[in-house]
Amino acid sequence: MVGVPLCAEKRAYVIEHYFRTQSYKEVFELYKRKFPGATVPNKSTIQRLVDNFRSRWTLEPRKRERRCTVLTPENVADISKRVRERPSTSVRKLASQMKIHPSSAYRGLKTLKLPAFRAMLAHELLPPDPLRRLKFCKWFQKFIQNSDKGISALEYVFFSDEAWFHKSGYVNAGNFRIWCSENPHVYRKSSLHSQKIGVWCALSRKRIIGPIFFTSTINAEAYHSIIRQFVSLLEEDERDCWFQQDGAAAHTSEDTLDFLAQFFDDRIISKGLWPLRSPDLNPLDFFLWGHLKNRVFRTPLGSMEDLKRRITEEINAITPAQLCDVFSNLIKRVALCKDQLGTHFQQFL
User: Fold this and answer.
1) Fold category of 129-348 in CATH
2) CA-CA distances (angstroms) from residue 44 to 50, 54, 83, 181?
């Protein structure tokens, strides 16, 4: 059998009887009778022994020559220095710079215990943003602490957002692309002017209100219509809820803020309190849109009505337990954001 070493006596027996019979099968049978219970060498092992004898006239197996390693202490130190200076360099580039094989560079990195970490894409933050994010996080934590309902108070805080769902499978929420975490294994033709539908939702720890569909870019008038529909769907105990929205122009014009105050008074998390460029703190951005993309586009869609129907079905299928998990995640995100003084924190999730 390949990989089982043979002693000198057995090697001699195999070679002698091969030259006598010129038959692998005969050697196989003779060997079994001569050495009962021993592992019988197969054809490739016998062939290797014979070839070795013919080429070297010896029964001793060929010793493997140990390659001279290029991973000298000096080279390992050089790898360490180069990686410290440029942590994002690739193994191939490192090998090219040092004139060694990529596998040697990789072994050097393993020797140094320097595993590779995939960079995480994050949204851009401008200089004023961290302080605004920190302000919101402190307010959010204090809101929960001061409420006699504790975390259950988040059942009466509705976060809102809108996104475009393209029939081709692309989802766009504001300026942030939502990528699918699972491969849907579906081929889709792309179109220069893909059919799409706008989706607006509001989400609390208890439930989701929506989808409310729209077909054109939201202006103040269209947004007022959406809010009226949202308010009409609130239950009696939700009338005093808090309402969050982002800083889009249609959301934060003077007319719109006056309009919102009719329903929510000062319970509005918007311009001044909600930080710009913070999709990582909005449950619709970090959960809902990506979840829907994973589910809605698993199989091809026939029409826009199919798209609307599937979006509605998948939203209705989200359970209260899932929403509780989402808001537990939000609380964790807020704490991490505060710890990082309002800067990026996703790498610690």
Assistant:
1) Nucleotidyltransferase; domain 5 (3.30.420)
2) 10, 15, 45, 47
